[in-house]
Amino acid sequence: KKNGDLYWEMAFISPILDDTGSITHYLAVKEDITQRKQAEEALHNANQFNLQVTQDAAEGVVVFDMQLRCKVWNPFMEKLLGYSAAEILDKPLQDLELRLDEMLLEEIVEQVFDKKTVQTPDFYFQSPRMAQPRWLSSMITPQINAQGELAGVICLIRDVTARVQADTMRKELAVLREMDRLRDELVSNVSHELRTPLGLILVMVTALKKDMLLLDQETRLEFLKDIEEETLVLQTIVNNLLDASRLQNDRLSLRWKLTDLTLLISNVVQRVSLQDLDHQYLFHLPQDHLEVVLDEDRIEQVLRNLLDNAAKYCPPDTRVEISLFCPEETIQISVADEGPGIPPEEREHVFERFYRILNPDAPTIPGIGLGLSICRGIIEAHGGRLWVSDHFLEDGSLSRGCVFTFSLPAKIEPLTLENVEEQE
Question: Residue 254: which residues within 8 A CB-CB, separation 6 or more?
Answer without folding.
Answer: 294, 295, 298, 381, 382
